[in-house]
Amino acid sequence: MIGFCLVGGGFIGPVHAANIVANPRARLRWVVDVDRAAADKLTGKFGGRATSDLDEALADDAVGAVMICTPPRTHGPIIERAARAGKAVFCEKPIDLDLSRVDACGRVLADTGTPFYVAFNRRFDPSHRALCDAIRAGDIGRTEMLVVSSRDPEISPPDYVAAMPFGIFYDTMIHDFDMLRWLTADEPVEIVAHTACMLDERTNPHHDPDTAMVMLRMAGGALVHVNSSFRAVYGYDQRIEAFGERGMLISQNRQPTTLERYGADGIRRDPLLRFFIERYAESYALELDAFIAAIEARRPPAIGFEDGRRALVIAEAAVTSAKSGAPVAIPR
Amino acid sequence: MIGFCLVGGGFIGPVHAANIVANPRARLRWVVDVDRAAADKLTGKFGGRATSDLDEALADDAVGAVMICTPPRTHGPIIERAARAGKAVFCEKPIDLDLSRVDACGRVLADTGTPFYVAFNRRFDPSHRALCDAIRAGDIGRTEMLVVSSRDPEISPPDYVAAMPFGIFYDTMIHDFDMLRWLTADEPVEIVAHTACMLDERTNPHHDPDTAMVMLRMAGGALVHVNSSFRAVYGYDQRIEAFGERGMLISQNRQPTTLERYGADGIRRDPLLRFFIERYAESYALELDAFIAAIEARRPPAIGFEDGRRALVIAEAAVTSAKSGAPVAIPR
Amino acid sequence: MIGFCLVGGGFIGPVHAANIVANPRARLRWVVDVDRAAADKLTGKFGGRATSDLDEALADDAVGAVMICTPPRTHGPIIERAARAGKAVFCEKPIDLDLSRVDACGRVLADTGTPFYVAFNRRFDPSHRALCDAIRAGDIGRTEMLVVSSRDPEISPPDYVAAMPFGIFYDTMIHDFDMLRWLTADEPVEIVAHTACMLDERTNPHHDPDTAMVMLRMAGGALVHVNSSFRAVYGYDQRIEAFGERGMLISQNRQPTTLERYGADGIRRDPLLRFFIERYAESYALELDAFIAAIEARRPPAIGFEDGRRALVIAEAAVTSAKSGAPVAIPR
Amino acid sequence: MIGFCLVGGGFIGPVHAANIVANPRARLRWVVDVDRAAADKLTGKFGGRATSDLDEALADDAVGAVMICTPPRTHGPIIERAARAGKAVFCEKPIDLDLSRVDACGRVLADTGTPFYVAFNRRFDPSHRALCDAIRAGDIGRTEMLVVSSRDPEISPPDYVAAMPFGIFYDTMIHDFDMLRWLTADEPVEIVAHTACMLDERTNPHHDPDTAMVMLRMAGGALVHVNSSFRAVYGYDQRIEAFGERGMLISQNRQPTTLERYGADGIRRDPLLRFFIERYAESYALELDAFIAAIEARRPPAIGFEDGRRALVIAEAAVTSAKSGAPVAIPR
């Protein structure tokens, strides 16, 4: 049984809070938010104590793990305070947007020996995981190509976009940068990126890229393509296709029901699940369970600091390539 | 190379004529129609000679086979004349609607030793055939249940319906009565049938059944269900499902293209192929080729007189049950 | 917030207990089982107090509802005791196997004005419900045919089968008898049933029917077919197809992942979800939530006593028909 | 009615010859092959006269069109001789592998006013065409991304590969270079290409690229990705995905049957159609019909000289990029 201190009551906070409550081996002890009302709102629904003072929660011995759900630029200091307080850390991605800040965190984590998990939850999606398992089992032999579609139904609000330029790489495709490392068990050595602004002034006032395609070469020779958009009107479009010497695996999209409607104008099924919270509902619950299991077994969590760091390195290279138009080598 | 005399230039005639022309081992020699203009129209497009006099064509030694595409009630005399002229016979289903007439034909065919094929073309549909092959190969073990959907997009014109009451059994489901014998390699021993008139006065003025469900027991114990309708607005709906001790096989529907359209309101594919001529285009060509191969090899055609007779016996039992509401034993 | 007393810690008990714990408006107060150890096991995992004495739990004012998960033949007395104690009742299907016993229950429920829910959970399955909503919305116009496949991956253990002969109707197809009333908003007037024993001596030593097909006529004229088997080796096969004047709706099967595996021998997807607990996981949680909402709002639960009674009446008629081979009128 | 002189009896020749014979408005007059036996073989099956002397056939006034099915490097002289003889030209792709040779052809075609068709048959595939029609109809609004999978089941024989290095661009992806121009009604301005040799020494002794990914930018801003491989063991994998502001269109793969096999290990469908001759059987017949219709109506054929030239220009740029690793501007 692990006591959790959840930091950040905003967007993704309630998802994690509900999973903590539903998990028989977890307990929600504290919700911390600089906006005390936000913290109160969460504890009102899910239990636990609310505070705006992180130190108060960290001082509680019943807290074994800190779950960080705040905006990316605030992750660093919270990670370090939690690590120094001897708590395990479950951190939303990305670790930070600044690589030197990430590395500073890494040193603190290493010094304190803190168990650290970065929440690339998609690795726990049952279909993506089944695809990975099939690759590992050798079902398609050597993986020769990976083709990933990673599209959101809409762009984030303007202030969120303004706070994280090139979010299409840092916030969205960063999941895919992690996934391609995981699926190929290999590292990319080069990336070339194309971006475009397809949305109009009203929805994308900062003219931040809302459409992107990249190609990568893996050290072992495999070729990878990822494409992304912020206006998949038909829902959250998340497909992974692995092609190899003995076949192909596709993790297909998911829909809310299996209903098929046959009419004179054709056969119609539901649009895709609308948003990542529904699309990845299972993976959020499963990553929490795996984190708890790792902490209890004193094993390192499944996705660690270096995974979070590498994904950021690739995202940075993507941004550089998108700006220059030229291929960019990805440093080790 | 076999010379054909095609009798009946109406509905299905042009389909067979085109296949004869396209088949490298067949030649269209004659088109016979009591309406000489109809015969002329076909020969104008596909070649061969037109006549309204069947005897003229039967006298031609270059004719090796007679293909009968006239209305069911005329089949008997034509079959007998062709048989007595020493020609092989390719006859559209049903052989006749009157069982005593069918039996009379059968005696002539036996006496003359005429190669006879009754055109249950669906046995040649690649998907249905693959299903049959899989059953024969033991893929699902013993077949325990068969569930067949056999639905037309619309009812025939009123005069056609008037000429063949209970056409839903005699004209439509008769294909399925043949298919279930073929797929199970067994005979049905009992049938119970429900019918309904769902169409309105305008499209079904004779109040002939336009909707039907039957259940049959096979001698070997398998249970069979077939359902039919004359208004599948989404196209020609033809599915066969075989359930057995080791699994299930489904021959699914066919569509004109593979296009998928993703929009905010869902994912849409084409409606089904609209009519039996498109739906079974391949099977019409394949049955002709098999008929020719059998004649050339002096083997009996794949679907013979007894097959045509049995399907009619089952259809008659279905009509009897639909009228009485009670189960009806199917005579051997 | 409603306090629950769960009676019967066996098979389905833990499913309901977990849903009670996860539901923010429910609390698990008691688990009652004649086998005290079974009750202890459940409370050990999910909380609440264990007892083998139903009266002890019924005496607790914090208990607002009794959830009955015991074998069917024990339902009657528990329903009546709960009703007389003034508790709402959530009862697993069937209400009882004996119609006179059911009617006795009905009188007690009426006299006491007890809110009563019979757990035909499939009505809450998102895909089946979307199909029902589409029918109600008029998407296919009048429903003309209903074709239902309702197949289990395996037969129940011999002692369970021995305790409920013709369980294929009383225990399995009873769900479909309820569904067809719900989907058509109509009552069946006649049924004809075929059954078979396809399983071997070892798995079905009592030679109870393990395979069945029925056809029904609805009062409004629609035709219905249901088929069932106890050995769908490919998983829990549950499909509903509604055919109407303007189209067709199919609630298709569900699979654990969306992975597609392309190899030289074809394209392979997962088998179906294996058992009803996974297949209907969502519907169990949703029915509980709807029950709570109804109790809180003092509305009758969505599926009431008469629904439970009617399904049993149809099941009895199915058994009679299966034994005689003749169609059986279904009493109102 | 148009008389055809087919030049080149090899690989694709018989496909075109059968379509000429089956088309009611075409007649096969001559088959020309430097290997007279190859010509004889075709005329033996499909009719017409055989010769190894192109001039003999060109001298025949009954010949209205020359269909060129010889290896790419021989196209130029044949095109020019046919043009000077006043015949319409139907030419397999690519026009030639050498751009200056192509341009020389172009001048002759212009001078002689010869109707010229380059056989990018995939534009006539019913599913690809339905996708194009939907784009043109505005179903997805502006096309923002195009993702194309274009994979062959195997590599060509070594001598074929040796004769055309970088055939993955010049011979295979050249179809897709044409398709992307057609689908977007726009021109690409830049390409970046990655290639790899994944096959072993035995199947790819010349170490010619057998795996490739490219990204292109269209003048209008759309982003395009194409990937290709020479070992799709599951069949001929040809998918086009167009993503736009109002949705997505996917032209999916095709399979020989619709059979679904449900077993304990999953649900299996057929592998894809094995080779381009089956996969594109319909498009070969349809392109011929469209060519004949254009000639008869004195309209330019649907896909003309400039289309053939542009596809080659893009293929050359792809080769340049694959060699240098850098993006390459595509000249107008």
Short description:
Four copies of one chain form a homotetramer. With 332 residues, chain A is α/β, with parallel strands linked by helices.
Characterise this structure:
Four copies of one chain form a homotetramer. By secondary structure, chain A is of the alpha/beta class. Chain A folds into two domains: 2-114, NAD(P)-binding Rossmann-like Domain (Rossmann fold), CATH 3.40.50.720; 122-283 and 310-329, Dihydrodipicolinate Reductase, domain 2 (2-Layer Sandwich). Chain A has eleven helices and 15 strands. The first copy, chain A, has helices spanning 13-22, 36-46, 54-58, 75-84, 99-112, 126-136, 158-163, 167-184, 276-279, 281-296, 305-324, and strands at residues 2-7, 26-32, 49-51, 65-68, 88-91, 116-118, 143-151, 188-196, 211-218, 223-229, 237-244, 247-251, 259-263, 266-269, 328-329. In chain A, strands 12-11-7-10-9-8-15 form a seven-stranded mixed sheet. In chain A, strand 1 (2-7), helix 1 (13-22) and strand 2 (26-32) form a beta-alpha-beta unit. The radius of gyration of chain A is 20 Å and the shape is globular. The mean pLDDT of chain A is 96. Chains A and D meet through strand 7, strand 8, strand 9 and strand 10 of A and strand 7, strand 8, strand 9 and strand 10 of D.
